[in-house]
């Protein structure tokens, strides 16, 4: 009976609420099979009956909704210099969060100790909700199945570290994902039952560094080694004839060396405009500082050049910018749009939208919760969950 319970649950995760008749119509299953699967999900508390549906003359069809508050996910979006930790419901919505400053170059143990403390604070403040999974986002390539970072350009000491194993004390599934991939997933999923999915998009995470995630045909494109889409450490297309600039990763001429937040701080200092962090760069742009505006717009052009070939090759419906630097808004967007529309194929840009995320600081943790839910509720895993939740005989 439970072989395809996950597929029925997926309908509720996507639509929010459905009647018994609608489940039968959408799934193509028989009424008796649907009744069995709804009963299993109801017993586990994953769906709840919310009243009668429409009637065609007989008894109204029962209506059910996905019980998002049944349990919670712990998630953390780790960046180069800061992190956002959150408790999210089963639908990916954060309901408690906290922020911390970190230095990712200190290595995994000091940073993950900060994560431990943030998680403990969230659980205490929320009254100890039942946790069903943990999602960890990191700014580097990830071997998804193993939960480990693989040869990251900037995460000194993290290569091969067992991040998933660090959280084994929680005795729940742990997902480790590239931070830009998690944001791409958050942007691709509808935020309401009547909203539209965005199955083909490029997500750019712009902060101290630069990351990018790809979702096409509704699926994350990770590549064979977790490095797909990482434009931050590809060669920048710049017209400057001077020697290529050094990057934090050890190479020269990377996109991040010209358009990353740390590079903008460097270039502002060179013209006598001090900025301690990316937040101050954004503040200078909002204040109309001419040098900050010039440099951020130029960073947008570098980013646009970097992503233009991807647009021509992959034909996304949208490019969505998130992260602190994205708060520069149109100053940054104008440079990206200028280069993308100049360099990409006309057909690939005909219906393309380039915009700033509306999720703000929660883009990463939301995507991590959704990816964790995908794993937990997968048809290959949900049997174990239902067996654990089944009432004792």
UniProtKB/TrEMBL annotation:
TM segment ranges: none
InterPro entries: ATPase_NBD, ROK, ROK_cs, WH-like_DNA-bd_sf, WH_DNA-bd_sf
Pfam families xref list: HTH_24, ROK
Domain of life: Bacteria
UniProt xrefs under SUPFAM superfamilies: Actin-like ATPase domain, Winged helix' DNA-binding domain
Protein family (similarity comment): Belongs to the ROK (NagC/XylR) family.
Protein's UniProt name: ROK family transcriptional regulator
Species in which this protein is naturally found: Herbiconiux oxytropis
């Amino acid at each position: 009976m439970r072989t395809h319970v996950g597929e029925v649950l997926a309908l509720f995760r996507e639509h929010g609420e459905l009647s018994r008749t609608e489940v039968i119509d959408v799934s193509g299953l028989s009424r008796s099979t649907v009744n069995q699967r709804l009963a299993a999900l109801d017993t586990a508390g994953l769906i709840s009956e919310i009243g009668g549906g429409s009637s065609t003359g007989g008894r109204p069809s029962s209506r059910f909704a996905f019980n998002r508050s049944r349990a919670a996910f712990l998630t953390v979006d780790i960046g180069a210099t800061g992190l956002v930790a959150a408790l999210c419901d089963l639908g990916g919505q954060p309901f408690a969060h906290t922020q911390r400053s970190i230095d990712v170059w200190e290595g995994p143990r000091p940073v993950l100790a900060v994560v431990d403390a943030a998680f403990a604070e969230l659980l205490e403040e929320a009254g100890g909700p039942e946790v069903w999974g943990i999602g960890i986002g990191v700014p580097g390539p990830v071997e998804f199945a193993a939960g480990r970072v693989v040869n990251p350009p900037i995460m000194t000491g993290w290569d091969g570290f067992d991040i998933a194993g660090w959280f084994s004390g929680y005795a729940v599934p742990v997902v480790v994902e590239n931070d830009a991939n998690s944001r791409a997933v958050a942007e691709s999923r509808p935020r309401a039952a009547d909203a539209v999915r965005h199955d083909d998009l490029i997500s750019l995470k712009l902060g101290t560094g630069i990351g990018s995630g790809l979702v096409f045909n509704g699926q994350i494109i990770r590549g064979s080694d977790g490095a797909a889409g990482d434009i931050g450490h590809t060669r920048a297309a710049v017209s400057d004839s001077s020697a290529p600039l050094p990057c934090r990763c050890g190479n020269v001429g990377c996109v991040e060396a010209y358009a990353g937040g740390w590079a903008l701080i460097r270039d502002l200092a060179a013209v006598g405009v001090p900025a301690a962090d990316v937040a101050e760069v954004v503040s200078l742009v909002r204040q109309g500082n001419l040098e900050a505006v010039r440099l951020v717009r130029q960073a947008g052009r570098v980013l646009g050049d970097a992503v233009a070939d991807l647009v021509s090759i992959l034909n996304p419906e949208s490019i969505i910018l998130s992260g602190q630097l994205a708060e520069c808004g149109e100053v940054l967007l104008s440079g990206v749009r200028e280069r993308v529309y100049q360099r990409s194929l006309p057909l690939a840009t005909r219906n393309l939208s380039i915009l700033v995320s509306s999720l703000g600081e929660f883009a990463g943790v939301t995507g991590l919760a959704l990816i964790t839910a995908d794993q937990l509720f997968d048809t290959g895993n949900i049997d174990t969950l239902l067996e654990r939740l089944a009432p004792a005989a």
